[in-house]
Amino acid sequence: MKKKLLSLCLSALLCNMIPIASYAASDIALSDTTESHSVITHKAGVDPETTNAIAPTLSLPTLQKLQWQPINTHGTQTIILNSTSQQLNNGNIRGAIAAFALPANQGSLEITLNSLIKDKQVYSPNVLVLDEQLHPAAFYPSHYFRYQQPGIMSTDRLEGVLKLTPALGQQRIYLLIYTTRSDLQTSTQMIDPAKAYAKGVGNSIPNIPDPNARHTETGTLTLKVKSERDAGNILIGQVFSTSTSTTTSKPVTVGSTQAISAPVITAPTAIPHSIISPTVKPVLNDTEQYFNDAIKKAISHGDIDKALKLLDEAERLGSPTARETFIKTIKSKK
């Protein structure tokens, strides 16, 4: 049985010898019914797509004081943000926040965050992702979370999907969800229920104005976290420690600072080397040898899944020999 599995793995690799490229990008989950209604209404002089374009700077003591709620990868978590929730008033950050600790040793994570619209009010979320050392790694500004029309099993909401790959050796990563003073001065344009119904049944769409949902300091969130075998888009944390401090590095920003139908990466001035970019530089010799040895060890113990993950991670970092090492080691086991 093992020989058969090894043969299948080898065949798949030989059929696809093109190295895997990883890009620091992430897709929004937009439903088929969403068209032009992801509209943020601004007050004069207020544009959160500009003011929230840069990740907040939070001191390590501030982050360490927060209570990080553990989240597993099973089911959907509902979070009520109200006056009794943790509060953070720091710079542009304002009001109730949610702080989560996620498992970092279960492979890539797909996180779906919804902020539910109730009584024409909604919490406009921003998300800062931090590695195990509480260093900022990725930033999702509020305009990344787009309006979704209600469905059979869902209500009006703001929704965004985060795809993350924790670097090896970490036990947890962190998710800080907050809103800002800029967000609180804006609103989200919804679609009138009569328009949605008319469109759904094929009738003429009535010419009536769409309502707006006011952004508030409180609200209701749902968080669904699941492990996925495919690699995520943003690498969280460093594979190896370095002598260079990363505390001043800026996280990669996910989502454009301009209003477009789908988000793209707006890279900060300086992206930490732990963030994967389309241009992959060759890894250091020590790093390359580490991955090659780890791949051999995983295969020798029959853990092909781990070996494949190591191969993927090595090629993300630019290793030119990891695939050859994998194939040769598989052949030697046959």
TrEMBL record:
Cited Pfam families:
MalM (PF07148)
Please state the span of the N-terminal signal peptide per the UniProt entry.
Answer: 1-24
Identify the species of origin.
Xenorhabdus anantnagensis
Query: What name does this protein carry?
Result: Maltose operon protein MalM
Q: Does the keyword Signal apply?
A: yes
Q: Which UniProt keywords apply?
A: Signal
Question: InterPro entries of this UniProt entry?
Answer: MalM
